[in-house]
Write a structure and sequence with these properties.
about 250 residues; mainly alpha; about 75% helix
């Protein structure tokens, strides 16, 4: 069954596969010319969107097939125009902002091209206004990666963490609180790490692993009374502990 027949029968996933094959053939027949492959994907996406709907699973699959071609082309270090790759990935992110393939490839690609302010803008502006934990994880990842070579400050990274934790769905994220604590700890600001620990204990009091960070990383920062209070609170909340506090911190 070829692509036209699949479209007529409503077998859109099969049509997407045929479209990918056509794009790959054009890509290879033109000496791995990325433009040739992307032009076919553009045409095929328009056809599939008209039949299946722009946000259908088949269309998302075709976007993923295109992203796989981009990743392959980049990995082989073929000559390419960053604008072509950027435009394709931005289109995919706008259409399917929860798809981690597009997000990760975009961040990695822009890091390769060293155009991180553009990543910042896309990650902040093109995603849903009500970002979930996944979106914020990519925003934070980009901000911390950017710090290595573009002078992003500790304050800007902290501001990103604060914005994430202030959002509606992320204030009780164990992952974000843990990442924030470790980031602050690595910066050497132990008093701020202590403050983050206490804030996290209020927001995610049921998470034993987070509470244990006090005993693992802040034994020399917290007083015995502070550690005892945290220990007592854990016991009161039914978190099982198998060691004696005095023996543990001695």
């Amino acid at each position: 069954m070829h692509r036209n027949a699949a479209l007529q029968l409503g077998d859109y996933n099969d049509a997407a596969i045929h479209s990918e094959c056509l794009a790959l053939i054009c890509y290879l027949a033109n000496g791995t010319d990325l433009t040739a492959g992307l032009d076919v994907f553009d045409t095929e996406l328009n056809l599939l969107e008209a039949r299946a709907g722009s946000l259908s699973s088949a269309v998302e699959c075709l976007h993923q097939y295109r992203a796989q071609l981009l990743a392959h082309h980049i990995a082989l270090k073929h000559v390419c125009k960053p604008a072509l790759i950027r435009a394709a990935l931005q289109e995919s992110i706008h259409a399917f902002p929860n798809n981690t393939m597009f997000l990760q490839l975009y961040v990695e690609t822009e890091a390769r091209f060293r155009i991180d302010d553009r990543v910042r803008q896309v990650l902040h502006d093109s995603m849903p206004s009500d970002k979930n934990v996944l979106h914020w994880a990519y925003v934070i990842q980009n901000e911390t990666r950017r710090a290595d070579y573009q002078g992003s400050t500790s304050q800007s990274i902290r501001s990103t963490f604060e914005a994430a934790l202030a959002s509606r769905d992320c204030g009780s994220s164990v992952m974000l609180w843990t990442f924030y604590f470790h980031f602050t700890l690595r910066s050497g600001d132990y008093q701020h790490a202590k403050a983050i620990l206490y804030r996290g204990l209020r927001e995610i009091p049921w998470v034993k692993e987070f509470a244990m960070l006090a005993f693992i990383h802040l034994r020399d920062v917290l007083s015995f009374d502070e550690l005892f209070d945290i220990h007592s609170t854990m016991v009161d909340r039914g978190l099982r502990l198998h060691v004696d506090l005095e023996e543990f911190i001695s």
